[in-house]
Design goal:
One of its GO terms (molecular function) is ATP binding. Pfam families: SNF2-rel_dom. This is SNF2 family N-terminal domain. Keywords: ATP-binding, Nucleotide-binding. It comes from Rhizoctonia solani. By secondary structure, this protein is mostly helical. It is 43% helix and 6% strand. The chain is elongated and about 95 Å long. The protein contains 15 helices and seven strands. Strands 5-7-6 form a three-stranded parallel β-sheet.
Length: 465
């Protein structure tokens, strides 16, 4: 155990110490009054360094205070809650609630007991550590206030300009504030959440989220969200962001089973293709038909016919059922594919993207040239893709770890016809997504066309570390 004589001076400028055996009091003097021929001051510094090291006494004190909710940030949060309950004449602004240099909470028995258990009786460290944390919190609160004001300014710019750059700036400002707000315990409070909600609504109003939350208070004239985002707004390479909702909860304790496809289990593979609107076929649109038997003997790089299995077709159909909605403005239902490794989840994703592109091309044909409406759309009354009146001509985005990027590129080449899709790789090293897509000589414009007429055939393969 570390000597108790050092515990009261963990953060002071102590040079030498001495203990009086009569009163057990700590006495110290400056080096000019008491030379240090034996290196005792160096020993003190060594012990202090050991106490302050990672995993040392002070680190344990901080962890214990955090577990029992007795840090300056926890207590400041409590004080803010009390401030909100005061009459309006006595209430102060959130960031003007004072932070105490010390607090009576540290003297309460539960705090002392927790520290005693963690530190074998060295609870005297708590006061000094609390003072240190309180000073740090004061600096963070000042920063938090400044960043909140910056968020306010950026949100005003985004509401006025309604441009992707303004929204991106507001998002960065909110992200910067969040980093501080986590430490000051503000991230789950109304003044933070309300600004976060405002930003989400702004993104949604530009076609990147649910269309059910309309922004009707804008000073400028805005087109009804029921008409979907304009072509200009659709130029950003994003599919509509779908707000995730929880539905169909199941217990996984009672053994494994298929979840979400029980209503389709009685259908044969042929019946599933008919549900998708492709009766009599055995491949997804744009799928690789394979090399003929006579050509296989001559072609060293012969390609295999891509024919999906029953579980891959039923999974694709279930995803599409969730992607289409009954009413304009409704949210689509996201889906998780939980098959084991090696069962062809990649082919299912390729199938979903291929089907959506097929439906888009059918939508663009004259009515008399279109195929019949898919059965699942007719039977379940699901005429709207992701709550929009028409399927937008937008690229698909696949986000993968960097280590799987090459594998995805190979799978697209293997299972789809050459030229049907144009995978373009994007990573953080490529610059901002906005500049990547707006460069007239870049790979995005080359794939999607200068007027973005081929945007739906473009596949963005985005990788991360």
């Amino acid at each position: 155990m570390l000597p108790a004589i050092f515990l009261g001076y963990l953060e002071g400028g102590l040079c030498e110490e001495d203990t009086n055996p009569q009163d057990n009091q700590v006495h110290y003097s400056r080096q000019e009054r008491w030379p240090d021929p034996y290196g005792y001051a160096a020993y003190c510094n060594l012990v202090l360094a050991a106490i302050n090291r990672k995993g040392g006494v002070m680190n344990q004190v901080e962890e214990t205070l955090g577990k029992i909710g007795a840090t300056p940030a926890d207590l400041w949060k409590d004080d803010r809650s009390l401030n909100r309950e005061r009459p309006a004449t006595k209430r102060v602004l959130e960031h003007q609630v004072p932070i105490a240099d010390t607090h009576a909470r540290l003297e309460e028995r539960d705090v002392q007991a927790a520290l005693a258990r963690a530190l074998f009786g060295m609870q005297g460290s708590a006061v000094r550590k609390y003072e240190n944390l309180a000073r740090s919190l004061k600096r963070k609160v000042t920063t938090s206030c400044a960043r909140m004001q910056k968020v306010n300014s950026k949100l005003e710019d985004a509401q006025r300009l309604r441009s992707p750059k303004a929204l991106r700036d507001a998002t960065r400002a909110l992200t910067d504030w969040r980093k501080i707000a986590i430490g000051t315990k503000e991230v789950d409070e109304l003044h933070f959440l309300s600004r976060e909600r405002t930003l989400k609504q702004l993104w949604s109003s530009l076609g990147f989220g649910s269309l059910e939350d309309d922004l009707t208070a804008s000073k400028s004239k805005s087109k009804s969200t029921q008409d979907g985002p304009s072509k200009k707004k659709c130029r950003l390479p994003m599919l509509t962001m779908l707000r995730i909702g929880v539905s169909g909860l199941h217990s996984l304790v009672d053994g494994c089973k298929d979840i979400g496809v029980l209503h389709l289990k009685s259908l044969s593979t042929e019946a599933l293709w008919a549900q998708l609107g492709l009766p009599g076929v055995d491949q997804f649109p744009f799928a690789e038909p394979g090399t003929g038997e006579s050509a296989k003997d001559m072609a060293p790089l012969a390609k295999t016919c891509a024919v999906p299995f029953w579980h891959q077709v039923v999974g694709t159909l279930r995803i599409l059922e969730g992607a289409f909605t009954q009413r304009v403005g409704n949210c689509a239902q996201p889906t998780l594919l939980c098959n084991n490794v090696g069962l062809g989840k990649t082919v299912q994703i390729i199938g979903v993207i291929s089907m959506i592109q097929h439906y888009y091309k059918q939508q663009e044909l004259p009515a008399k040239e279109r195929l019949a409406t898919p059965m699942f759309i007719q039977e379940q009354s699901l005429p709207y893709f992701a709550g929009q009146k028409t399927i937008p001509n937008l690229p698909s985005i696949v986000i993968t770890p960097r280590t799987l990027g090459n594998q995805w590129m190979e799978q697209w080449k293997k299972f789809t016809q050459l030229g049907s899709f144009v995978p373009v790789r994007y990573s953080v090293e490529s610059g901002t997504l906005e500049s990547f897509c707006s460069d007239p000589t870049g790979p995005y414009r080359a794939a999607a066309g200068q007027d973005l007429e081929h945007a739906g055939q473009w596949l963005s393969l985005q990788t991360y570390w």
